Amino acid sequence: MPTDTPPPGQPDDAMVDLLVKQVTEGLSPAEQRALDVMDSELASAYLRDLERAAAAVTLAGSTGGEPLPAALSARIAQQAAEHFAAPGNAAANHNVAANQVADLTEARTAAAEKARVEQSLAPSPVPARAGRFGGYGWLAAAACLVLAIFGWERSPPPLPPVVVVAPPPVTPPPPAQPAPPTAAEERAALLAKTDSLKIPLGATKDPAAAGVTGDVVWDPATQRGFLHFAGLAPNDPAVRQYQIWIFDAGRDKRYPVDGGVFDVPANAGEVIIPIRASLMVRKPAAFAVTVEKPGGVVVTGREHVIALGATS
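^ thats the sequence. predicted structure below, dont judge the formating
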């Protein structure tokens, strides 16, 4: 017996077997109990259809008092067996039902015609049992017809519509930020400006200035500039530091503007140092570099001036 689960609203093979036996032979107490625990509403609906089919078969079989022709009976029985062995979809079952209706009509017509002809010759009584049911082939065909029609009328409800959920939008990563320009690149940009000041720096007679060469580029508009040195001796930041000074013609020359402190690492060769003026420089007149204590001083004593350059 097939073990496939039937579609919703249709009986399984066990229920069909019990219902057919109830209509044809009657059920034993054990079989009746087995039927009672099944879906009562579904069983009742199929039982009514089977009983109507049995009644139709009875009427067809009693018309002429003769069983169906052998070829037609075999055809109906084969169709019923194929239906119970491998049930199809709802549309296929509907086609089988239509064929079974045609077969029953053909059976009734053939039986009636044969009875009419033979009745005038030598009619012979047929046992009531054989005339009423004519074997299981008729009832199987009727059951096939009922199941096909019932299954077609009770086709499963349509599946709910498939809702396609769009994936969330993918946010592209932000573009990579360009690397900041190096001190050399910024100095080159200032040198390219026509209104920037380019001032050479000369070494003084201080022993720490031996072999030093350099220059200054300064932009009065942006108050930005760079020192460029070669040959400047490395320093120990814990002992001393270099400090930049800007002399402003609009201020007292005793108090140059602090441009920040810097260090020269060992084996540096050339260094480029940004100038960070602590005050606005309106009229730059000269730039100087001194050697001071760590952290620098507010006012330089100018004891160790190692480089100096004037704007004019």
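The radius of gyration is 56 Å.
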